[in-house]
Design brief:
mainly alpha, 0% strand
Length: 82
């Protein structure tokens, strides 16, 4: 355990109401910070313009591969019909 031997742990019986209030305030601040950080990450991940900008080369490569695959499939389909 950390802290001084006489100090009550969070959640331990025998804490004063002031200690409890202080612990609640600390938890609320930590939760607010976590929520704000999560909100920021969600905003970044759902910003499709930024994602396109950040991953332009991968998107161009994927589009080229998809074009070759679709083109190849269409060509095979036409050959089967003849």
């Amino acid at each position: 355990m950390s802290g001084s031997p006489g100090a009550a742990r969070p959640g331990a019986p025998g804490r004063s109401s002031e200690e409890i209030r202080r612990d609640i305030a600390t938890q609320q601040q930590q939760l607010a910070g976590s929520v704000e950080m999560l909100r920021s990450k969600v905003t970044d991940l759902t910003d499709w313009r930024r994602q396109v900008s950040d991953h332009r080369e991968q998107l161009i490569t994927a589009a080229a591969v998809a074009g070759f695959v679709v083109g190849g499939l269409l060509m095979m389909r036409r050959r089967r019909r003849r």
